[in-house]
Design a protein that fits this description.
Shape of chain A: globular
Number of strands of chain A: 0
Order of helices and strands of chain A: HHHHHHHHHHHHHHHH
Radius of gyration of chain A: 21 Å
Largest interface: A-B, 49 and 49 residues
Distance between the termini of chain A: 49 Å
Strand content of chain A: under 5%
Structural class of chain A: mainly alpha
Oligomer: homodimer
Chain lengths: 397, 397
Amino acid sequence: MHTADPFLFQLFFIFVWAKLFGEVFERLHLPPVLGEILAGVLVGPYGARLVVPTDAIYAIASIGAIFLLFTVGLETQPKDLIGVGRISLFVALAGIAVPFLFGFTYMVLRHHATHEAIFVAAAMCATSVGITARVLGDMRVLQTLSAKIILGAAVFDDVLGMIALAIVVGMVSSTGLEWAQLLLTAIEAIGFALIMMFYAPRVVKRMEPGMERMSTQDAPLIIALAICLGLSYAAVKVGMAAIIGAFFAGLAFAEYSPRWNLRPRLFSINEFLAPFFFFSMGARLNMDVFDAKLLVSAVVISLLAIISKLVGCGLPVLYSGWKQALKVGVGMVPRGEVGLIVALVGLQMNIVSESAYALVVFMTGITTLVAPPIMKIVFHEDMVLEPPLRERRRTAM
Amino acid sequence: MHTADPFLFQLFFIFVWAKLFGEVFERLHLPPVLGEILAGVLVGPYGARLVVPTDAIYAIASIGAIFLLFTVGLETQPKDLIGVGRISLFVALAGIAVPFLFGFTYMVLRHHATHEAIFVAAAMCATSVGITARVLGDMRVLQTLSAKIILGAAVFDDVLGMIALAIVVGMVSSTGLEWAQLLLTAIEAIGFALIMMFYAPRVVKRMEPGMERMSTQDAPLIIALAICLGLSYAAVKVGMAAIIGAFFAGLAFAEYSPRWNLRPRLFSINEFLAPFFFFSMGARLNMDVFDAKLLVSAVVISLLAIISKLVGCGLPVLYSGWKQALKVGVGMVPRGEVGLIVALVGLQMNIVSESAYALVVFMTGITTLVAPPIMKIVFHEDMVLEPPLRERRRTAM
């Protein structure tokens, strides 16, 4: 009899554990992604050690992250950005500046290295629109002004967040903090973003007739996957993170995504790959680092993460009343996968320590858990009173 | 600046090379799968060494093989087997027995080890219905009796082939050729096949209401993937190959595949993973082993592979004329991925040498290339004369 293949063993059990915890979280009306991460924490190498991921699993997890960010990019349509207007842009900008300032200041005051402080602060800037959009959708309040501002701001936030990450990675890669170098990286990243948003879709459009002549079945999906992998590789090659390239590749295809039916196809691929990414996120979390001191830091960082988004995102809409400000602020609180990925990039670059990584995962968990119930309270007045019966189960969340 | 990630580099270039060769082959009206394999031969470690796959890539390739065989299983509906009746079963059985006999005898006469001879002979048994079905579909002759017999026999062939592979793997894993052990393995494999075909679908049916209650989005896909990975792992654990478990998992879900929309979802996953598998197949082919002696063997094996299917599959239908026999025989000639996977399993178990592996890849290529043009000649009389205009391009193959 053969000794069982350790890779297949891990493949099976990680998938099952992640999905099992995801299902439990879903039933408890909590974000399933947190369940998949918790699976990694509990059964992973720092937990019960039931499954200790090998390099091959981490490789698969990294493909999962790439396609996840590609999908985020696909959902970020440049024309939406132009539509939502200036308020959303201000909400996004202040919603990045304030958390970064709060986070960076606190981390430096707690004597963390500057580079590490920058990464943790950058992770605090991200907004995960997925969870907010789902809660607002379930409450059927997506048509309110607040909801529109939030979703618009979250789109800006994704783009700005990726530019910020590119700058941060560029910054810590160079020797010391040279301002000329920093400016150059910033211009590069912004230029890259603008090209991918406004020029690349035109290139894609010009490729379309050629694609239809191609004999390969499903040419658009193949081309999209190839360009996603290519830009991920190119991003690493020029000193950025792979996921930045993947996100911008998504932007380039966003306009054509509905016509080419890209999203449902990537969705199937993500269904298989993403659990490995989230499980790995949890598996890298060393629970032993949580001593009393770090726990205090974690709670403070989480509070700062909540308050800073409330303040930063609320301020630009304060002119229309504090209730509006509160709604927008709360809607921008959840961090989700983008924040986690920022922390992971830092961990992989050996800039973020295990304990700072733990801080970010903790903060992401708290902000993601805390926001939905508060959203339900503040958006309650906008709720359509009688949702159709067949959707009641979902709405009961 | 970072050194570029070798994994991402390989991921991108293997995908692009494989798809590029696939596209070229498609344009030349050749099976794209052969193009993807050729990409691995030409740019891989034994060719131009542009991309040398690492373990992580081989790991991804092995997932590709698992989902490929799962899809083959999904397409094998037990009720089709009952429908096509006895003739197809006889065609399949003789189409396995004759090639095995021919192959085994020749390999032993050429002084190959018994185990190796068994593997090469087993690879000669497989029939790849994909290429045949496509050619017949393009010619619009799928409704002829010959076509129905071929497609029915190919379904039996898949199931019988997997049982044969299970027996072969079990046989060479045990010490020597013990007949009692062999009988036990055979009974196990056949029992496993029968359970997965006739009992498992009922279990799946009973799971259905529970699945609908599940909160996880897309529960059927998740459950199907989990069971596919689980059975693959279980198969390895009991001493079979992972793909055998994957194939039988597919059988269990075949009946529910249309209702749960499993095929298009797996298709997207395969679109991404399968090129890594086929490229890796090519990348393992050492062209240096092809000396004059091996080339003679390769040509003889290829001829035997063609003749044995013509004879084996033709005989059972000879009562209705030699033309009918020829049609059925030619349709069963292409070997495709199942034969390759059998050879790969042998290579990974260190039973099949590099040169025997090369024999099988050569034989697969020849049988797959030779069959379509001959099919076009023998089926020409059955062709519907005026295909609709918009399908003419495909039909022009």
